[in-house]
Amino acid sequence: MLIGKYFIILLQLCMLMIMNKVGFLIVQFTHIPIPGNVMGMLVLFFLLCTKLVRINWIEHASSILINHLSFFFIPISVGLMTLEAVFMKSGIAIIIVLMISTVLGIIISGSLSQALLMRKEAIQSEYHRHHL
Length: 132
Fold this sequence. Notes:
Blueprint: H1 2-30, H2 36-49, H3 59-67, H4 73-80, H5 84-131
Helix pairs in contact: 1-2, 1-3
Protein backbone atom coordinates (compact mmCIF):
# COMPACT_ATOMS: atom_id res chain seq x y z
CA MET A 1 0.00 0.00 0.00
CA LEU A 2 2.76 2.42 0.94
CA ILE A 3 4.56 1.88 -2.36
CA GLY A 4 1.33 2.62 -4.24
CA LYS A 5 0.91 5.89 -2.33
CA TYR A 6 4.46 6.97 -3.14
CA PHE A 7 3.98 6.01 -6.78
CA ILE A 8 0.83 8.17 -6.97
CA ILE A 9 2.70 11.10 -5.42
CA LEU A 10 5.54 10.59 -7.92
CA LEU A 11 3.06 10.62 -10.81
CA GLN A 12 1.45 13.78 -9.45
CA LEU A 13 4.85 15.45 -9.13
CA CYS A 14 5.58 14.48 -12.74
CA MET A 15 2.29 16.05 -13.81
CA LEU A 16 3.19 19.29 -12.01
CA MET A 17 6.67 19.28 -13.58
CA ILE A 18 5.12 18.76 -17.02
CA MET A 19 2.86 21.79 -16.47
CA ASN A 20 5.93 23.78 -15.45
CA LYS A 21 7.82 22.68 -18.57
CA VAL A 22 4.81 23.50 -20.77
CA GLY A 23 4.82 27.00 -19.27
CA PHE A 24 8.50 27.44 -20.12
CA LEU A 25 7.93 26.19 -23.67
CA ILE A 26 5.01 28.58 -24.19
CA VAL A 27 7.16 31.50 -23.04
CA GLN A 28 10.09 30.35 -25.17
CA PHE A 29 8.03 30.12 -28.37
CA THR A 30 5.74 33.12 -27.85
CA HIS A 31 8.31 35.44 -26.23
CA ILE A 32 5.70 36.56 -23.69
CA PRO A 33 7.47 38.53 -20.94
CA ILE A 34 6.23 36.25 -18.15
CA PRO A 35 8.40 33.80 -16.21
CA GLY A 36 7.96 30.25 -17.45
CA ASN A 37 6.97 28.91 -14.05
CA VAL A 38 4.22 31.52 -13.76
CA MET A 39 2.97 30.56 -17.22
CA GLY A 40 3.00 26.92 -16.09
CA MET A 41 0.84 27.86 -13.12
CA LEU A 42 -1.55 29.69 -15.44
CA VAL A 43 -1.73 26.62 -17.68
CA LEU A 44 -2.47 24.45 -14.65
CA PHE A 45 -5.08 26.94 -13.44
CA PHE A 46 -6.76 26.91 -16.86
CA LEU A 47 -6.76 23.11 -16.94
CA LEU A 48 -8.23 22.96 -13.43
CA CYS A 49 -10.94 25.51 -14.28
CA THR A 50 -11.92 23.66 -17.43
CA LYS A 51 -11.81 20.35 -15.52
CA LEU A 52 -9.35 18.88 -18.01
CA VAL A 53 -7.23 18.21 -14.92
CA ARG A 54 -8.98 17.26 -11.70
CA ILE A 55 -7.74 18.54 -8.36
CA ASN A 56 -7.37 15.01 -6.98
CA TRP A 57 -4.87 14.27 -9.76
CA ILE A 58 -2.36 16.67 -8.18
CA GLU A 59 -3.68 17.05 -4.63
CA HIS A 60 -1.21 14.93 -2.64
CA ALA A 61 1.93 16.19 -4.38
CA SER A 62 0.72 19.79 -4.13
CA SER A 63 0.10 19.40 -0.40
CA ILE A 64 3.59 18.03 0.13
CA LEU A 65 5.14 20.90 -1.82
CA ILE A 66 3.11 23.50 0.08
CA ASN A 67 3.96 21.93 3.44
CA HIS A 68 7.67 22.20 2.61
CA LEU A 69 7.50 25.56 0.85
CA SER A 70 9.98 27.22 3.20
CA PHE A 71 12.75 24.90 1.99
CA PHE A 72 12.38 26.28 -1.53
CA PHE A 73 13.41 29.73 -0.30
CA ILE A 74 16.82 28.55 0.93
CA PRO A 75 18.54 28.44 -2.51
CA ILE A 76 17.25 31.87 -3.53
CA SER A 77 18.28 33.32 -0.18
CA VAL A 78 21.79 31.95 -0.55
CA GLY A 79 21.92 33.23 -4.13
CA LEU A 80 20.91 36.72 -2.99
CA MET A 81 23.91 36.83 -0.68
CA THR A 82 26.17 36.94 -3.73
CA LEU A 83 24.44 40.06 -5.08
CA GLU A 84 25.80 42.58 -2.60
CA ALA A 85 26.79 45.03 -5.36
CA VAL A 86 23.25 45.06 -6.74
CA PHE A 87 21.78 45.73 -3.30
CA MET A 88 24.29 48.49 -2.62
CA LYS A 89 23.38 50.17 -5.91
CA SER A 90 19.61 49.60 -5.99
CA GLY A 91 18.74 48.51 -2.46
CA ILE A 92 16.29 51.32 -1.69
CA ALA A 93 14.40 50.80 -4.95
CA ILE A 94 14.23 47.05 -4.31
CA ILE A 95 12.89 47.60 -0.79
CA ILE A 96 10.26 50.06 -2.05
CA VAL A 97 9.12 47.66 -4.77
CA LEU A 98 8.97 44.78 -2.27
CA MET A 99 6.92 46.85 0.18
CA ILE A 100 4.48 48.06 -2.48
CA SER A 101 4.04 44.58 -3.95
CA THR A 102 3.52 43.11 -0.47
CA VAL A 103 0.86 45.67 0.40
CA LEU A 104 -0.84 45.18 -2.98
CA GLY A 105 -0.73 41.40 -2.53
CA ILE A 106 -2.33 41.66 0.90
CA ILE A 107 -5.02 44.06 -0.32
CA ILE A 108 -5.86 42.03 -3.43
CA SER A 109 -5.90 38.66 -1.67
CA GLY A 110 -7.95 40.07 1.22
CA SER A 111 -10.44 41.70 -1.14
CA LEU A 112 -10.73 38.54 -3.21
CA SER A 113 -11.24 36.42 -0.08
CA GLN A 114 -13.96 38.76 1.16
CA ALA A 115 -15.70 38.80 -2.22
CA LEU A 116 -15.64 35.01 -2.45
CA LEU A 117 -16.90 34.66 1.12
CA MET A 118 -19.74 37.11 0.48
CA ARG A 119 -20.63 35.23 -2.71
CA LYS A 120 -20.65 31.92 -0.83
CA GLU A 121 -22.84 33.38 1.92
CA ALA A 122 -25.25 34.82 -0.66
CA ILE A 123 -25.53 31.45 -2.38
CA GLN A 124 -26.11 29.69 0.94
CA SER A 125 -28.75 32.18 2.07
CA GLU A 126 -30.50 31.89 -1.31
CA TYR A 127 -30.42 28.11 -0.98
CA HIS A 128 -31.84 28.23 2.56
CA ARG A 129 -34.53 30.71 1.56
CA HIS A 130 -35.80 28.43 -1.22
CA HIS A 131 -35.41 25.12 0.62
CA LEU A 132 -36.84 25.97 4.05
